[in-house]
Amino acid sequence: MDSDTDSISDRFNLPDADVSFRSSDKVIFRVHIKNLETHCDGFPPSAFCPSEVVDLTESAATLDLLFRFMYPQRQPDLNTIEFPLLADLSEAAEKYQVYSAMDICKIFMGNCLQDNALRVLNYAVRHGYRDIADEAAPLTVSLPLEEVGAYMHPTYMGSWIRYYGEWQKILELGCTEGWRIGHTNPCRISNSTSCPHWLAARQTVLTKLGAKPGALNDLTMIFTTAQGVYPCAIESLRQWEYFIVVKVKDIPKFRTFL
Ligand SMILES: [Zn+2]
Fold first, then answer.
1. CA 242 / ligand 1 centre spacing (Å)
2. Beta-carbon neighbour count of residue 55 at 10 Å?
3. What is the pLDDT along the chain (258 residues), one digit of tens a residue?
4. For the chain, what are the domain ranges?
5. What is each CA distance from 8 to 15, 70, 148, in whole angstroms?
6. Residue 169 Cα, ligand 1 centroid: separation in angstroms?
7. CATH code of the region 7-112
8. Which of 55, 97, 141, 187 can bridge 42 by disulfide, Cβ–Cβ 3.0-4.6 Å?
């Protein structure tokens, strides 16, 4: 089929429909004004002038899901859709204020933040879901800066940089502590100042911390690995890790930077 030609949605081609929408990929949806009126607040006023097809910026896949939330039928199973479509649906639900979709999308977006932290953070800050923003933000600190620079919503970039700065400060304190803390238990190998375990353990941890605040998300892995390799340094490593963990816990939540 010619890609410039409109096709018609299989599901939303209702005989007594009184309004038509066209998706960004040229699929027509014929639906009922009364369903729009009762389920949402955000459709453009032109949608209520039934003579013309109203162009929308969303894809057919997104609109198909969105309109299903406006009809008395079983709601779409969001477990079966891929994250990019879920994210598009969630944005559309907010844009058009489709109340029946907004809450369930919020829950699903929150469940996906582990693997999609930046996109979920953007969604959460723009729509005022601060609990989700607070949960997603720490994970974004581990992402390459180019990625954050490219995809963080510009309105919130300043907030993100200030938040990142807090992580940077804790990283610096954590590294400094490694030099201060020393060998804290009686040395079993030589003497505490030249203990090869402690010297090597300290170097290993400092290398892994690097200058990357995101390493603070991996403290358990970093310190546990070092403890396994350098037994005489276990006590010092424990104290050092604890010092950093407490400071990381004290980093203010992302919402305080908004
Ligand atoms: Zn030792």
1. 19
2. 12
3. 445 678 999 999 988 898 999 999 999 999 998 898 888 888 877 667 777 899 999 999 999 999 999 998 888 999 999 999 999 999 999 999 999 899 999 999 999 999 999 999 999 999 999 999 999 999 999 999 999 999 999 999 999 999 999 999 999 999 999 999 999 999 999 888 889 999 999 999 999 999 899 999 999 999 999 999 999 999 999 999 999 999 999 999 999 999
4. 7-112, 164-254
5. 12, 18, 38
6. 29
7. 3.30.710.10
8. 97
